[in-house]
Design brief:
The chain has one domain. The protein is built from two helices and nine strands. The chain has a seven-stranded antiparallel sheet.
């Protein structure tokens, strides 16, 4: 299990910004306590890669990428996805950012992505991923 650092990309003054987590259980518990907020983006930063999470009470999303910014950038696709039009919206820096609804994840899918990332610092093989 590796250590990740949490950054809230919506509330700069969030007291847990910069907090380090070394178990997926403690991280998931913290994220569950933040799901009451209006949907927002946060980041989990590892040693060589990161997850950008759109965290919401109804739906979330996950983007995986290298810390150095090199492609590929991968988005997790939920099991109940549809390819119809529609979008989710997450706040980042007080700006509502649209995300296509095909990337909507349930909470269990989000936790799966996080658990895998904390074990291997890669994407979960239990989810489908699309390069963007």
């Amino acid at each position: 299990m590796m250590t990740v650092t949490f950054f809230d990309r919506q509330v700069e003054g969030n007291p847990i910004n910069g907090s380090k987590f070394d178990t997926s259980e403690s991280l998931i518990e913290t994220l569950q306590n933040l799901q009451y907020r209006e949907p927002f983006f946060c980041e989990l930063v590892g040693a060589v890669s990161k997850l950008l999470l759109g965290l919401g009470s109804q739906h979330s999303c996950v983007q995986y990428g290298a810390l150095n910014g090199d492609p590929p950038y991968l988005m997790a696709m939920g099991a109940n996805r549809n390819d119809e039009e529609g979008e989710l919206s997450f706040l980042i820096g007080d700006t509502a950012t649209p995300v296509p609804s095909r990337y909507a994840l349930s909470s269990p899918e989000l936790w799966t992505a996080i658990e895998s990332f904390m074990k291997t610092e890669t994407v979960s093989p239990r989810l489908d991923w699309e390069e963007i």
